Amino acid sequence: MGGAGGTGVPPGDGGTPSTCGTGTTPAPNPFGCSFAWGVNGNPTSYLQFASAWAGYNIKADGTFPTNGFDSGNWLKSFASTTAVPAYYAYILGYYGHANGLQDGNVNPGGPNLTNGMGPLLLGVLNTACPQGTICDQNLMVKAYAWYAAQTYAAYKKPVIWLLEGDFIQYSVEGSTSGLSYVQLGQLAAQIALAIKCNDPPAVVAENYSTWISTSQLNSYIGEMNTAMAALGTSYDMIWTTGKGTSANAGGSETWAALHTLTGKPILVDESFGLSAAGDSWANQTAATINARIAGGVVAANITTATPSYLQTNVTTTLAPSALSTTCF
Q1: What are the structural domains of the chain?
Q2: Does the first or last residue of the chain, that is N or C, have fewer Cβ atoms within 10 Å of its Cβ?
Q3: Residue 155 to residue 168: CA distance in whole angstroms
Q4: Is this model's pTM higher than 0.90 or not?
Q5: C-alpha–C-alpha distance, residues 308 and 149, integer Å
């Protein structure tokens, strides 16, 4: 089916802990105890993971086209490898785009995801839920359920779901019309549970936006943890963008502080588009990467143009065997 519900199974009634999506998640670090390297694109023999953007073809009505699973062929490319697939899952963002909302840094003065997504999520998409509450019947939660079901049908091994970059932009921190922290936490928890119910080996990674303050981060993580616990689910990793040369994960947070706050391993990328930075991970010494490992970082995705030195560096001085363990 092409609809957002499709064969995806809703995770319950929206307020009661569910038995699906619990107890089946692999070790939170899908790379074992070794630091992992990846690129955006197809799997490569000398790297531990590869990433791709997922869900781009969702339609303005919240459904996908018939035979609209856009990651099927990409997942097949992992069949004969040991690499782990990682989705940049941006289904909410792509849904906003389909409804005329651009990213905030692309259209800061006009309709964008920051000032327009909250009303969409709480409006017609949420009519089957109690007023003001994000439940499993929200159409975007069901869209994630559908996408997860298609993923599991195509690939029975772990996929890392790097959820919704700048997820906090849908909250009141981005706009007075946005979701409250409580609602944002509910949305995160419902999406995590929908994924795990329909793709049991999934590894769910929530996003940290480096432009938020410490108090905003604490509120965001706190409400998300509360909502996850209420549904009997959890997220497995935290992902963000940052420099390998810095002990600072963004704002006033160090990698170690982010790891301590969340209790989760951290996957880092070098960003995309307007915010993309030059490589500051694969060109470092083992001592520098070991310092990041000590702060909770377990993987780096080289999302800028692939450096000519990448294979040499990550198979010699920065090979997983040359670095500290990531099992804390």
Answers
A1: 36-322 (3.20.20)
A2: C
A3: 30
A4: yes
A5: 38
Helix axes 255-262, 214-231, angle to 10 degrees: 30
Q: Are 296 and 328 in contact (CB under 8 A)?
A: yes
10-residue averages of pLDDT along the chain (328 residues): 51 55 62 96 96 96 92 96 97 96 83 91 95 96 97 96 95 81 97 97 96 93 97 96 93 93 96 75 98 98 93 97 93
What's the rounded Cα separation, in Å, for the pair 167 and 215? 16
Please give the pLDDT value at position 252. Answer: 81
Please give the DSSP secondary-structure letter assigned to residue 327: -
Closest CA to 85 of 246, 256, 201: 201
Q: Are strands 248-250 and 253-254 parallel, antiparallel or unpaired?
A: antiparallel
Crossing angle of helices 139-154 and 181-198, rounded to 10°:
30
d(C-alpha 227, C-alpha 192), whole Å:
11
Q: CA distances (Å), 80 to each of 87, 128, 293, in order?
A: 19, 43, 29
Q: Would you state the structure tokens that stand for residue 255, as one six-digit string?
A: 């990698």
Q: pLDDT value at position 24?
A: 47
Check the CA dihedral 62-68-70-72 and report its sign: positive
| pLDDT given for residue 261 in this prediction | 97
Tell me the C-alpha distance between 38 and 281, whole Å.
11
- Nearest Cα to Cα of residue 187 among 138, 251, 253, 259: 138
Tokens of 282: 């694969």
CB contact set of 257 (below 8 Å; sequence gap of 6+): 249
- Using alpha carbons, select from 126, 154, 132, 162 the residue that is nearest to residue 50: 162
Q: What are 38's strand-pairing partners?
A: 49, 301
Q: Which amino acid is at 297?
A: V
User: 129, 138 in Cβ contact below 8 A?
Assistant: yes
Give the per-residue pLDDT at 67: 86
